[in-house]
Amino acid sequence: MSKKLKKGAKKPTLAVVGATGAVGTVMLSILSERKDVWGEIRLIASARSAGKKLMCRGEELTVVALSPEAFDGIDVAMFDVPDEVSAEWAPIAVSRGAIVVDNSGAFRMDPKVPLVVPEVNPKDTKKRPKGIISNPNCTTLSMIVAMGALNKKYQLKELVVASYQAASGAGQPGIDALREQISAVAGKNLGEATSDVRTVVTKNDVFPAPLALNVVPWAGSLKEDGYTSEELKVRNESRKILGMPRLKVSATCVRVPVLTTHSLAVHATFKNEVTRKGAQKLLAKAAGVTLLDDPENKKFPTPNDAVGTDATWVGRVRRSPDDKKSLDLFLCGDNLRKGAALNTAQIAELLAVELTK
Amino acid sequence: MSKKLKKGAKKPTLAVVGATGAVGTVMLSILSERKDVWGEIRLIASARSAGKKLMCRGEELTVVALSPEAFDGIDVAMFDVPDEVSAEWAPIAVSRGAIVVDNSGAFRMDPKVPLVVPEVNPKDTKKRPKGIISNPNCTTLSMIVAMGALNKKYQLKELVVASYQAASGAGQPGIDALREQISAVAGKNLGEATSDVRTVVTKNDVFPAPLALNVVPWAGSLKEDGYTSEELKVRNESRKILGMPRLKVSATCVRVPVLTTHSLAVHATFKNEVTRKGAQKLLAKAAGVTLLDDPENKKFPTPNDAVGTDATWVGRVRRSPDDKKSLDLFLCGDNLRKGAALNTAQIAELLAVELTK
């Protein structure tokens, strides 16, 4: 599906669908910070939010309601909405002439929709028979840039992943729920050395257990064999992005009381022998990666360091004492930026380059 | 080294060394709850705490200062003190006639000191040429009861562990630091959707980074090849307890903002094929294990469920989709109880049985 700008247009037009959500809000600030490759930017959201005014690139923009006509004249549409909204509206946007970059789970595993991380598989943006490109899940995105770089040199064989996922992975309601719970437990006498927050945290619609002073081994919905949708996304999306359909991947996804930025402990096994120094050197140079690995001075990434930044932070790089082909690492990535809005914007920018060629 | 009770004594005497610390406090309540196998119980602590009165078994006991004479007449001495204090004083207690059960790291890897988990290797208590038995580290203890049970049936080959460790693993100062930080961040406007607690958490002597609204991939001190002492303990202690000196173990230890109870995501690979149902059935019956694994109803263990209980809680049992010999599990264990005081008390009770035979 090749596409050209309208005659006379110098820059492509962009729609942000879901502009008022947690990711949409971050998207507007990212669009304001990055190189300005866009002509008109149109903000689209549910009818409820229509008429709302938001700032982007220093201009005040008025949100318009989602409708087929809202996509008229749009070259690229970025979607940050629930799966079912994307499933319905992305094809409508395409039928109105837009290329869609979708951050929902609706199309990620569709063989006719590429799943793209610009640092890893940028060329896949060109193979888009449906006019739709998918953006990976935030948990996959918190490690895949670093894993892609290591894979190029050492060839991945297996990933064992344990996640430390932030509340904002469940959107604004997740952030609000954690803030509320933290306020409820603060200063309370919770008994000697116990973390019993049940007594003070009663309302809890977003997470299946209290999150303040607790960790909750659940994200997403139940899928095959006891795995959650989130855990299978880490497996299936990593395989698709890396182009390795047989890569062994096991993940356990756990929610932690952090507002924003996912962390992951990864045990990666390769076909080739690795060295700690070699891996550190490679990661220090890899695009999109910030290496913070100085254990002598207790320097390593934490969510608090990574939040609000664009990079995948990597530290605690170690070669397994029992296997010369395995590395243990700890990674942090802002799930609202690289994990969502930033990667979507980067894909859209690849399309802007293509459209203005 | 065989030992008998003093003539006429019906029950052995017990010393609790470090009675006023975070673990010591839990120890006194555990001794009050369990079957009463002890004659005199003597509380020992640093000179600073001498004279303090504490309740145990419904009696008020007066803490005595640590001295060689304090061990006179003691049959079993449980130590919950820093490594260097154990290293100096455990041999003194032995020279005064006591058998020592030590919960520090001082003797754990000494080949002449057994490392015991009563559900896994109770018979090792008898091989104690130095008169000292070591209690494992709390992180190892949070999984080893369940792993020991699985190992008996399926034979372990490899463990990949990621921990979610509570603040109380760093003792009372850890608990206090987290409580203080939680109070400091509660209700504060930390910026839209960020976890930037740096602005409000300034004093932080216990952990190398803020812990409230954050996770910190560091516990213990730096050892070989970038691993921490805590990570190598998980490896070396698991091997020793299971009697498998070549077991492959990789661990990444991460502190989370939970007051008490460590959690672990474990990817365990066995020599034999496993099934999810078979593993669940085995764990449901295993001594010291509580299986809570009903994902259909979103039931799984969290620190909040496990805190204050004796069992190792296991849930999220899954067989890896890519390997019939691998299981993914999530475990929780109260690091002050089974992870420290309870296991020490259980070892001491094995000695009480031996002494009264």
What do these coordinates show?
Two copies of one chain form a homodimer. By secondary structure, chain A is α/β, with parallel strands linked by helices. In chain A, strand 13 and strand 14 form a beta hairpin. In chain A, helix 3 packs parallel to helix 5. The radius of gyration of chain A is 21 Å and the shape is globular.
Helices and strands of chain A, in order, run as EHEEEEEHEEHEHHEEHEHEEH
Biggest sheet of chain A: strands, sense, closure?
6 strands, parallel
Helix content of chain A: 25-40%
SSE-based structural type of chain A: alpha/beta
Largest interface: A-B, 84 and 83 residues
Strand order within the widest sheet of chain A?
5-2-1-6-7-8
Give the termini distance of chain A in whole angstroms: 15 Å
The count of helical stretches of chain A stands at 8
> Strand percentage of chain A, roughly?
15-25%
User: Would you count the extended β strands of chain A for me?
Assistant: 14
Overall mean pLDDT score of chain A?
Answer: 93
Extract low-pLDDT stretches of chain A: 191-195
Radius of gyration of chain A: 21 Å
> What multimeric state do the chains show?
homodimer
Apparent shape of chain A:
globular
